[in-house]
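Researcher: Batch entry, complex prediction.
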Amino acid sequence: MSNGTMDRVASATPPRVARKVRGLSDRAIAWIFVAPTIFLLLAINIFPLIWTIQLSFTDYKANRIGREVKNIGLRNYERILTDTDIWLNMQATAHFLFWTIFFQVLIGFTLAWLINRKFKGNDLWTTIIVLPMMLSPAVVGNFWKFLYQPQIGLFNYIVAFFTGKEPSSFEMLGSVQLAPWSIVIVDTWMWTPFVMLICLAGLRSIPDYIYEAAEIDRASKLRQFFTITIPMVLPFLMLAVLFRGIENFKMFDLVVQLTGGGPGSTTELTSINLKREAFEKWRTGYASAYAIILFVTVFGLASIYVKALNKVKER
Amino acid sequence: MKKLNAAAIGAVLMGSVSAPTLAAAENLTLCWAAWDPANALVELSKEFEAESGHTMNFEFVPWPNFADRMLNELNSGGKLCDLLIGDSQWIGGGAENGHYVKLNDFFDAEGISMDDFAPATVYAYSTWPKGTPNYYALPAMGDANAWFYRRDWFERDDIKAAYKEATGQELREPQSQKEMLQIAQFFQEREIDGKTVYGAAIFTERGSEGITMGVTSALYPWGFKYENTPGSYDMDGAVNSPEAVEALEFYKEFYETATPPGYTNSYMGESLDAFKSGQVAMAMNWFAFFPGLYADPNTGGDKIGFFVNPPQNQEGSTLGGQGISVVSYSDKQDAALEYIKWFAQPEVQAKWWELGGYSAHNSVLNDPGFTDSAPFAGDFLEAMGAVQDFWQEPAYAELLLAMQKRVHDYVVADQGTAQEALDKLIEDWTEVFEDEGKL
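Model: Structure tokens for the complex:
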């Protein structure tokens, strides 16, 4: 906006309003601007959280409007924490979380390291590699379901080609042993590009002169990798792990499309189980306690992790 | 003027007395599952539109999402549906939570008698508490889980000879659950016309109700009961009886030895696909699909045969089907009631059966020509004489999901034993009934 326009706008402000605004302190004006955001935050984040905490101590069921709601203290928490099935869901989630992050970091960093070397077609390869993360999880889940189909699925045929097994002799989604790995493979396929991009940003942020100094000091490539590349990319890697960790802890859509939590409850991650309790069984109080436990777990782990991340950045 | 006023008052009074049958033209929405009979109902309802002046809209939801979608609609007091053809298990929740309009007064006023409908369907689709004369729905669509098979394969001399050689018995429509498994195992991975085929398509779906509907088709013929004494909720010894354990083990054996590869999460659609693609010799599914299967140009007609769920210790079929209810949150209840009145007429019910819907009206079922009216009509009558349904309690969703988990964990995921699965199921159900204050 030009000065002329600003002057015109200022002169158009009625004197009474101008006097009032002039009378407000900077702090008050700041509050006026921030207030709508704070109000929204309270309305859509803090209030539901407090309400959820309150519901978690009751036997409330959202589908039974006229039913008397009883305060049952810590009973929901006690039930959840002593339920062996929920611990199995936690184990399934931990397995998914650990292995997806492990493979995504490993492959993502390797890809970033390769892409970072200047070669012909570099940009094209980068674009091709990031394609999976641009797709909808529902679409990815559906087409991998076809790929995993034991009789006509491409995945089984490729495995059969290399191992000599019959394609229909194993079921990626139907086998208790293979189903947890099948969801790890799909999530890794989809989200490794994301880790790669973050790593690539890290690699490109390392100034060339550091490597040049190392060359002058006759440091080997391996030494340069472990003493320059890894330490300088580490904060970026840790950030990628944090993002993927939080995302995968609440993984729902992809796994529902692929296995629906099955076979049995083998791939029933906590978020799937929570959805069943809250919106299929309608045990609202119980599900609220479950959500609070998960929230505290993620929040606690993330806080510890962020502290570690800050320490690494300070080094 | 006075005369005019009197006439106007008289007309208003007349109108108010006969309000349910003379509702102003409305746009009615009927909600149901998206499947073959729904298309038949659209066709049938055209007559109602012509007669009443009301317009019918339809909201059909695919089966896997039907319960979620509709129960959310009811629980939120939604006005989307004026009429709902809801699953039989919803009747308890529909009645107790005030989602459905109680129809007793309407039935009395309009002369609709529940004695005109098959008793099993009235009990299952209309009453709450069970068996009491409190009606919340009109039986709309009778249904049960049954079987169909490749008649052309069963009649082939080479296949019959091979079966005789393998088992020492004649290949025929199975007369027992165990014979059915034997036949399915015979067909498993057999080469027919250069193609590998499999025994049977059964229900194994985990997410909604699939595997429970499949497993109960084995449990009921073995004599499974939900309670030792009806209404007492004493399940120990009934749900986990030796017969129930044997039936569950049977279903697992069926799944492991006689179904196509990758058949771990399959329900109605997958069963139909497996059969129509020539992959299986037999398949289980609801009667509702049988007209469409019979009409299929590739695998229908002379190539298909139908049989009722075979007995084992007793006869028993899993009940499907639904009643039609008026949603209490609807603003167009009068017009909706008008539809039910129209639908209850014997001639409409006859047309309903003709179009592919399964009427539960005695005038249709007791007609001397009924059993010959379709190749599966006799089986339908037989099945409806021995149907059993899942819990119809208001907490049915919790009860159902618990069973889905326990039986899928055992049958498909191979975790634990049948005894453990049923024992755990009792624990889950006990917890639900304790929460409900019924134990």
